[in-house]
Amino acid sequence: MSRDNQPLRTKKRRAAGLGVSILAIGLLAGCEGGDFSLPFGAKDGASAPRSTSTKLVERDVEAPEVFSATDEGLWDGRPSLGGVWVAHPDVTEPERVIVRNEANGKFVIGALFRRERELPGPKLQISSDAAAALGILAGAPAPLNVTALRREESAAPEGSFEAENTGDATSAIAAPAPVTATALEPAATAPAKAAASTTPTAAAPVPAAQKPASPAAGAKLSKPFVQLGIFSVEANATRTAKQMRGAGMVPTVKESSINNKPFWRVVIGPATSQSELDSLLKKVKAEGFTDAYAVSN
């Protein structure tokens, strides 16, 4: 090999050695602070932000400002229709209530109606189903507390961990949005403007997409359903629903709970007009449920 080629080989070896040195310095910089990471890889243990989801929860909450009474309650011993109910002379409109027997701590969900003031006996009159649920004997007054209930809709997070990290997850998801929008805006805007100037009919599909949906059945009525009764025993609610089907109506049994205690409501509807609602009420009362009344759901 000639001597003329030796300087060239020497230069190549020096260049290779310099490249190795630079790579080593970069790797050591990555290790600084004890956190080694490759420039082209993700850190071990990194995880994608957890998504959060929110659901609407309906529940009954006590509303003493609507109605609340503590007095003696009495069951006269006669069987009654309509499931669990209580009557009080100060009631103006039917309500859903929670009734507590303060003597034994039992409670039940039922309907509240108005009773005539001139009737003898305690102010609170209860049905046979209410008496059975509260442990009250016929003709034996018991101290009762009656409080109105209101349906409340609230937002509840799916999990506590996700709720605590909602801010981080949202920011992590939203961060790439400006970059994507900036990159796509010139390409998307130009054709849109050109189409708008040259083709006036391009916007025609927009009104069709924004056409409001047809109103749901009963949307014009604030209370399109007829409630027959509230039951603490599911079998009684099912039996009442069966009776309504036999009379040519279509009932629905709705299950709810409060304080982990279930109850069942039997409703018919929704009615699409006031005349239809009045007709449903008339049919229901003809079946013996004279205390049936209109409800919102």
TrEMBL record:
Coiled-coil zones: none
Top-level taxon of the source organism: Bacteria
GO biological process, alphabetically ordered: cell division
Keywords (A to Z) from UniProt: Cell cycle, Cell division
PROSITE patterns in alphabetical order: PROKAR_LIPOPROTEIN (PS51257), SPOR (PS51724)
Domain SPOR: 218-297
SUPFAM superfamilies (UniProt xref): Sporulation related repeat
Pfam families attached to this UniProt entry: SPOR
Record flagged with keyword Cell division: yes
UniProt keyword annotation of Cell cycle present: yes
PANTHER family given in the database record: CELL DIVISION PROTEIN DEDD, CELL DIVISION PROTEIN DEDD-RELATED
Protein name: Cell division protein FtsN
